[in-house]
């Protein structure tokens, strides 16, 4: 929460979160290294990430209602994720964030969150 009492979700706005994820997946789709970790149909994964970010940033709890506790590292342990894979994921997230139109302080806070989460996923 900020000093204004608003969550990052409220400060960024749901439409901006949805667009950010769409932009991210448009770039990820072209990535030869990490695209193979995803199913052929990206829509379910894209929708899960949207719900996850909405919840993680302080919005509604639909992700947990539908899928249970996020358990990010455990859910991703089936894939070998090294520094290179995390870097590719972050590169696309950063590019999507650069396209975003919400204010820089919120971009910085979002980046801090996803950077830490990506580092947490590294398992090799």
Please provide a written account of the structure.
Pfam families: Bac_globin. With 124 residues, the protein is mainly alpha-helical. It has a single domain (12-121), classed as Globin-like. Helices cover 65% and strands 0% of the residues. It has helices at residues 8-12, 14-28, 43-56, 62-67, 72-76, 83-99, 104-121. α2 crosses α6. It starts with 7 loop residues before the first helix and ends with a helix.
CATH topology: Globin-like
Give the uncertain stretches in residue-range form.
none
What is the gyration radius calculated from CA atoms? Answer: 14 Å
| Number of helical elements | 7
Query: What is the general shape?
Result: globular
Task: Provide the succession of SSEs.
Answer: HHHHHHH
Q: Kindly report how far apart the N and C termini lie.
A: 33 Å
> How many strand units?
0
> How many domains would you count in the coordinates?
1
Question: What keyword list fits this structure?
Answer:
mainly alpha; globular; Globin-like; Globin-like_sf; heme binding; oxygen binding
Summarize this, please?
The protein is mostly helical and 124 residues long. The protein is built from seven helices and no strands.
């Amino acid at each position: 929460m900020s000093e204004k009492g608003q969550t990052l979700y409220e400060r960024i706005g749901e439409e901006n979160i949805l667009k950010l994820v769409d932009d991210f997946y448009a770039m990820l789709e072209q990535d030869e290294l990490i695209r193979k970790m995803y199913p052929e149909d990206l829509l379910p994964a894209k929708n899960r990430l949207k719900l996850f970010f909405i919840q993680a940033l302080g919005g509604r709890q639909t992700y947990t209602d539908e899928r249970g506790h996020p358990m990010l590292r455990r859910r991703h342990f089936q894939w070998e994720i090294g520094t290179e894979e995390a870097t590719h994921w972050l590169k696309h997230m950063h590019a999507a964030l650069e396209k975003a139109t919400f204010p820089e302080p919120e971009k910085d806070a979002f980046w801090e969150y996803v950077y830490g989460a990506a580092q947490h996923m590294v398992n090799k």
